């Protein structure tokens, strides 16, 4: 009964338009005071949520992605990949997915990935006759790869909450991320062959391939350095974020000269806004998590789950279904920080590997990025599409939603594959 009242109160605050960070912190504070606990728990929880070395990676990865975004890294990546695969059936779609995958391995952000690649891919694909709904859906879904392939900001947050290795989580996301990339590419090629509406690109010459690849090479090397450095233990994920940020500055300011020193304050301000939003939500979730723990809600939920869902498989299926529904009304980080304090004890009770579950959880919140009405990537692609065709008819949200549905099905199939074959997630961190 207490859980129902708490969740009802939280959803009421969200329906009233209260920001998720303040809704979580406010409701947690009320629960602590009403329950007769010391109000000092609130400032202590706020301080504890920020006093974490691992969280330093969040602003640094955000800064790195903003530097690369403003420095035109997305254009360079797309042009380079397009020169190699653009003449394939559905080649521009394949180039878009591969560009999303490569940029995802650098930025750690689905929104940054979708916005960066979408800016150049949308006009290129629609100009070649690709169905616009397919284009919007492809980019909205392709951007979600950004939170699965390392580095991943949501995985950092997950690791902090459940106190698991960020390195293991990063490595566990590699194979599922590549599997999702292959599924998207296969569907794109199949769609292109069946529709026949696109205009294929001529095969690029050797000189053009070398020119575009040379232009994009520093960015691709940066992605490889981050992933290999983490995998080989050269640096921790937090150190990798610092290395990546400095390298991004060197690439954009001195190697490519696509960014000027005068642009850096605007880049820092954009990164600051995103960082503050993320950290505010984390702080609010910490207070809320402490409150529900004092009320023994996680313990009661764990007891209920272990009594009714005795199978780990049934528990995971139930959580996936719940996440799919919640993804329609909550954005990804809010959903993660609302759910994890409640279900994390149940993972221990059912002996579920938290790294494996972390990959499944991340894949499910990927789905939340493209499920209406609050799927963030849907709005990002809608905005980018409208900017790419000024003066034209406005792009409706329904166009993006209808285009993304086939990719949502593919993502759910990938989730099922990881559930049925845990080694897809666990081989790289624990067996290689």
Kindly report the average pLDDT value. Answer: 86
Radius of gyration in whole Å, from Cα? 22 Å
Helix content: over 70%
The helix/strand class is mainly alpha
Q: Kindly estimate the percentage of residues that lie in beta strands according to DSSP.
A: under 5%
Order of helices and strands: HHHHHHHHHHHHHHHHHHHHH
Number of helices: 21
Biggest sheet: strands, sense, closure? none
What's the total count of β strands?
0
Number of domains: 1
Note the overall shape. Answer: globular
Q: How does this structure look, described?
A:
With 432 residues, this protein is mostly helical. The chain has one domain (34-431). 77% of the residues lie in helices and 0% in strands. It is built from 21 helices and no strands. α6 (91-107) runs antiparallel to α7 (110-127). It is globular, with a radius of gyration of 22 Å. The N and C termini lie far apart (46 Å). The model has no long low-confidence stretch (mean pLDDT 86).
Could you name the key traits of this structure?
mainly alpha; 77% helix; single chain; 432 residues
Describe the structure in brief:
By secondary structure, the chain is an all-alpha fold.
Task: Summarize the helices and strands and which ones pair or pack.
Elements lengths: L1 H14 L4 H15 L6 H10 L6 H14 L2 H13 L5 H17 L2 H18 L4 H12 L9 H10 L3 H7 L1 H22 L10 H26 L5 H19 L8 H31 L2 H12 L3 H15 L5 H18 L4 H15 L7 H13 L8 H24 L2 H9 L1
Helix pairs in contact: 1-2, 2-14, 3-14, 4-13, 4-14, 5-6, 5-7, 5-12, 6-7, 6-8, 6-11, 6-12, 7-8, 7-19, 8-19, 8-20, 9-17, 9-18, 10-21, 11-20, 12-13, 14-17, 15-17, 16-18, 17-18, 18-20
